[in-house]
Amino acid sequence: MGANTPVDVPGLSHLLLVSGRDRGPVFRWARLDVAAVHDTAARAGLVVREVFRSGRRWFAELARPAA
């Protein structure tokens, strides 16, 4: 990795979706390494439904386990 390569730093943010005049509720957004998503989800009592890449970014869908 070069000295000028941007790196996503793990952490927690709060986001708000805005579309035109509509504003959604604020929600928590976590940033973590894709290799850590399964363990992190399990510690939170969640399951990973999907991990996928879009362009240069990775995303994961987490859900509560089925009862």
Radius of gyration: 15 Å
Order of helices and strands: EEEEHEE
How much helix is in the residues? 10-25%
The biggest sheet amounts to:
2 strands, antiparallel
Low-confidence stretches: 1-7
Number of strands: 6
**Strand-residue proportion:** 35-45%
Structural class: mainly beta
Let me know the average pLDDT: 81
Overall shape:
globular
Describe the secondary structure blueprint for this structure.
Layout (H helix, E strand, L loop, with lengths): L10 E5 L2 E2 L2 E2 L3 E5 L5 H7 L3 E8 L2 E7 L4
Antiparallel strand pairs: 1-4, 2-3, 5-6
Features:
67 residues, mainly beta, two-stranded antiparallel ribbon, two-stranded antiparallel sheet, disordered N terminus
Structure report:
The structure is a single chain. The chain is globular, with a radius of gyration of 15 Å. Mean pLDDT is 81; it is low at 1-7. With 67 residues, the chain is mainly beta. The chain is built from 1 helix and 6 strands, in the order ββββαββ. Strand 2 and strand 3 form a beta hairpin. The longest helix has 7 residues, at 37-43. 10% of the residues lie in helices and 43% in strands. The protein has a domain at 33-67. It has a two-stranded antiparallel sheet with strand order 1-4.
Summed up:
The protein is mainly beta. It contains 1 helix and 6 strands. It has one helix spanning 37-43; strands spanning 11-15, 18-19, 22-23, 27-31, 47-54, 57-63.
